[in-house]
Design brief:
Elements lengths: L1 E7 L4 H15 L3 E6 L11 E9 L2 E2 L1 H9 L1 H5 L3 E6 L5 H4 L6 H10 L3 E5 L2 E2 L8 H8 L1 E2 L3 H22 L1
Parallel strand pairs: 1-2, 1-3, 3-5, 5-6
Antiparallel strand pairs: 3-4, 7-8
Length: 167
C-alpha cells in the first residue's frame, strides 16, 4: 500500500515529524513517500494520505491549509489523517490536544479519519519575529518519537482495513 506523508514547515520541526511518520509507516509494511506540500502534484495514486502542518499563533501552516483545500475531493476518497506540530512544552505527550478551529474545519471538509497534535521544536537561534523572541524563553525540542510511533501503529490497521475494503 502506498502512502503520502506531506507537510508544511517553516523551520524543519514538522518536516522531522513527517519523516518519523514515514519511517513508522515503512516499519508497518507500507510504501511511504515523505514530500513537502509544495512539491506534491497529485494524490490519486496514493492509497492513503497524511498531511501535517506546523502551528503558528493557532493557525496551521499556510501551505498545508492550501494543500488540503486544493486536494479536498481526492482526500475524501481515501483514508486521510492530519497532524499538527506546535506546543513548545510537553503537553502533547500528556494527553490528546484537539485540533485548532481552522484545522478542525479541514478535518471535517475532507472527512479525515483522525488528527493528532505532536510537540513542536524551536531552535535557540530561530530567526524572524516572533520566533527569535520566543526562542529566548521557549527554545527546545518536544517532538516525541515514541508518541509518533504509537500513533502510526494505531492507524496502520485502520488504513489496511479501509484500503482492503475499497479494493
Amino acid at each position: 500500500m502506498s502512502m503520502l506523508v506531506t507537510y508544511g514547515s517553516k523551520r524543519g520541526g514538522t518536516k522531522g515529524l513527517a519523516e518519523m511518520i514515514g519511517e513508522g509507516l515503512r516499519d508497518e509494511g507500507f510504501v511511504a513517500d515523505v514530500v513537502p506540500v509544495g512539491k506534491v502534484g497529485a494524490v490519486d495514486h496514493y492509497d492513503a494520505v497524511i498531511v501535517g502542518g506546523a502551528l503558528y499563533a493557532f493557525r496551521w501552516h499556510r501551505g498545508a491549509r492550501r494543500f488540503v483545500r486544493r486536494h479536498a475531493a481526492q482526500l475524501r476518497q481515501r483514508p486521510t489523517y492530519l497532524f499538527s506540530s506546535g506546543p513548545l512544552d510537553d503537553s502533547a505527550g500528556k494527553g490528546d490536544i484537539p485540533p485548532v478551529k481552522g484545522v478542525q474545519a479541514l478535518v471535517e471538509q475532507v472527512r479525515a479519519r483522525g488528527h493528532v497534535t505532536f510537540g513542536g521544536r524551536l531552535a535557540p537561534d530561530a530567526r524572524g519575529f516572533p520566533a527569535s523572541a520566543m526562542a529566548k524563553k521557549h527554545a527546545g525540542d518536544w517532538r516525541d518519537a515514541g508518541q509518533v510511533r504509537s500513533w502510526v501503529r494505531s492507524i496502520a490497521p485502520e488504513i489496511r482495513a479501509e484500503v482492503a475494503h475499497r479494493v
